[in-house]
Structure formats: structure tokens, C-alpha cells
Amino acid sequence: MKTRPRRQPRHRRRNGVRVHLTERDESLLLALARFRLARTSDLLDYAFQGVRRDTATVRLRRLFDTKHLAVLPPRQGTENVYRLGPAGSRFLRELGVEVGRVPRGGFDHHLGIVATWTALAGIADMGLERCLPDWELREQFTAPDLPVIPDLFALVRYGESVHTVAVEVDRGTENVSVLGRKLEAYRSLWGGAPGLFGYERFGIVVASLAPTRRASFPTTLKKAWVVPCVLWEGGESPRPVLLKLFEEMAGPLMDSPCLKGSLAAVGGGSDG
Fold first, then answer.
1. What residues pair up with 203 in beta bridges, in sequence order?
2. Closest by alpha carbon to 37, among 132, 103, 116, 131?
């Protein structure tokens, strides 16, 4: 009677695995350099659209075995959380890509931002011209330049128009008053110079990833007042909510002098 081989623990690498990096692999590593941390589902949604889940997870496993990816200590009953491994970081540095630090402290809010980012990037008929998360904004701007720091700042192209959107992600980890104060700050910036990173007209998406908190949002969203603001419930496609927001946003949006160059390496979905 043959004994079934023991399954390799997901946090332990297999020896002797080799991999030839594909264009998709490079796109995934570039994305993870900006995400800093991402769940399995986030990487599948971003880099493996149209690919069978089992095929995609086998590829992630090979990239982990070859040290292009690393995983945080796994928690039972949860999916893997990935960061760049030593081989992945070395590969990107050889391309001239700066590899940032993984954030300290709790990761739940950070992972909520990444999940929202990949959801926006996955909308087929929209494109992220630029998308800057909280941690990149803090690295690129000094505190006096940031009266309010969005969880995500995005320029979303739909048809011939580009819309400026600030995204706030709620995981239920902060008091709802924190969101209220941020909405009031957005209101103070809207419609006049300098606006939000040079954009005087913008809209707000509140991404609700904590269902128990949603009942309190109608009152909180009123703090935005004149600013077009919509609520997106995670788990649903953000496309209908964005279309509603775009309808509420009036007037053409001009290019901002504060955001020049290509800052949206992550934004257009996978490479196929």
C-alpha cells in the first residue's frame, strides 16, 4: 500500500524549483512592489484575469518557491498574504525599480485599500490613468502639502473623460468620526484652489468593507455636502457606483501640475 505524500506547508519553500519569468510574472512583481502587501485573491484579480484559479495558484506557488514572492506567517482559515521575496526585490532593482517598505502595524486597512485598488483596476471599460495609495502619497508629499490624505487618489478614464476620485476605505477599524473629519476636509478643498493635488473638482467614493457599519454612513456622508460622494459596498462591482459618481461630477477636469509622469504602473488590469 502506497503512502500519500505529505502536503508541503504553504509557508515552506520547496527545494530545486526553477522558473523563467514571463511578462505576466514581471507585471505581478511590479504591482506587488506598489501594493507592498496583497492577498492571493488580489493578485489573482490583478494579474490572472481569465486564467483558471488552480493554474494561477500553482504559478504563485512556483514564484514563492523561487523566492520571488514571500508570505507572511499564515493564519489558519485565511488566504496567503504576499510580499516581494528576495529574488523578486533583486529582479526589480536590476530594472531600476525602487522597492518600498512593507507598512508597520496592523495590515487589515492596508489590505482593504489594495482590494479596492484591484477592484477599480479590473473594470473592463474604465482605466486608471493614475492611482496613488496612502503610503505613496505620504512618501511623495510632506505633511503641510497634505491637508487630507486619501486612502487612494485616482484619475479614472471613462470614454473620453478623466475623472478625479478620492477613495476612502472603511474596514470598521477606526471610529466613524475619523471618516467624518476627512469628508469635512475634502469639502474645504472642493471648488477652489489649490483643490486636491491641484484638482479643484473631484468626487469621493467611500468603500464600505464592514457591513455592520453601513447603517451609519448616510449621516456621515452628509459631511461632504457639496462634494459628489457615493458609497460602494465591497463585494459588488464598483462600476455602477462610479457611473453614478461621474454623473454627479459637473464640469471638465484639467490636468494637475502636481502629478506629472507615469505614476500608474498598476491601473490597467493584467497583461492578458
1. 165
2. 103
Query: Can you read off the three cell numbers belonging to residue 138?
Result: 505620504
Please determine, for residue 65, whether its predicted confidence score (pLDDT) is greater than 80: yes
Q: What are phi and psi of 161, to 5 degrees?
A: -110, 150
C-alpha to C-alpha distance for 210 and 261, rounded to whole angstroms? 35
Model confidence over 151-203: pLDDT tens digits?
A: 999 999 999 999 999 999 998 878 888 888 999 999 999 988 889 999 999 99
Kindly state the average pLDDT of the residues 16-44.
Answer: 94
**pLDDT tens, position by position, 40-62:** 999 999 999 899 999 999 999 99
Phi-psi region of 105 (alpha: psi -120 to 50; beta: other; left: phi over 0): left
Phi first, then psi: what are they for 261, rounded to 5°? Answer: 90, 180
CA distance 272 to 51: 9
Question: What pLDDT, in 10s, does the model give residues 219-236?
Answer: 777 777 789 999 999 889
Which residues, in sequence order, are CB contacts of 170 under 8 Å at separation 6+?
112, 176, 179, 206, 207, 208, 209, 210, 213
CA neighbor of 91 nearest in space, from 18, 17, 26: 26
- pTM for the full model? 0.84
